Amino acid sequence: MRFFFYGTLLDHDVASLVLGRRLPPGAFAPAALPGHARRRVKGATYPIVVRDPRSEVRGAVVGGLSARDVKRLAAYEGPRYRIAQLKVRIGGAVTTVSVFEPVEQRFEPTSGAWDLVPWQRRYKRAFLARIRPALSASWPRRRPAAPSSRSCAG
Fold first, then answer.
1. Helix axes 67-77 and 12-19, enclosed angle (nearest 10)
2. Is residue 24 part of a domain?
3. Which among 153, 143, 22, 4 has a CA at the least distance from the CA of 81?
4. pTM for the complete prediction?
5. Using CB atoms within 10 A of its CB, is residue 85 exposed (0-12), middle (13-18) or buried (19+)?
6. Which of 19, 29, 88, 127 has the fewest CB atoms below 10 angstroms from its CB?
7. Is residue 18 part of a domain?
């Protein structure tokens, strides 16, 4: 399976922790999600994507994900997201991939953009410390309880 990552999962350490394995750097293919904008969530450090016909979100398509990987990603994202099939642009080609899309009425986006590098500098260390205990070897459980204050895949 292929997913478009647009938020904290773009960080290789976060993705490794969530998936329980390290993906090779080549697994992350640069891509763009047209018709959407990436916004910070009010009161959180992670982003969501919102529909915006004048914008596009840069991220990465990650391929070769197993059913186990998708289960872990879904537990990480929690019930506030749904898996949507959306068109992304990889190079000059357009293809359909899975995206964790927020159930928008459950979030309050800010007007501010979200960028990975500033997030890594300011929030990554505390974010990893907060989610690491929730992502133990027994995770995800039968009825996944998503870690609090976590990411969007994005």
1. 110
2. yes
3. 153
4. 0.86
5. exposed
6. 29
7. yes
